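Justification of computing resources. Each target in the renewal requires a structure prediction run like the one illustrated here; the chain below, 162 residues long, is used simply to show the kind of job we budget for.
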Amino acid sequence: MAATVFAAATSTSMAVMLPRLPTTTTTPRCSALPTLPARSFSTSIKHASGSKRSNLFQIKVSEDASSAPDANELFNDLKEKWDAVENKSTVIIYGGGAVVAIWLSSIVVGAINSVPLLPKIMELVGLGYSGWFVYRYLLFKSSRKELATDIESIKKKIAGTE
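Resulting structure tokens:
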């Protein structure tokens, strides 16, 4: 059977496999709904020509040399920044720690997801928090301004300008 399907798939003319339908359609029904007419299945496949398909998905690309960065320029910039770093071992340790933290959080989320009711409870907690956040910070104009000032102060703390 598999060899037949494979041979049909690799040949130029493909056959369509249709499910067998019962020949008798008069079965007693216990419903007040009218019966629907039987579906008619087409036995031929029409191949779309490549030219019609390519016309549907044409993308215009503008060539602007200033907008696309050069790969060599990007690598040179990264090399300069890496050479400017004084304590390379600390950067490598922090990077490795970040990878391990992401891996561990993935394991924890997978373990929580395998407990039967816990994912639904976490979903409800997330929906509740999202609703509270919208009510507290996004619903009213004054609270949106407060949120914007909080975000700006956090940005200044992170950048060290405060």
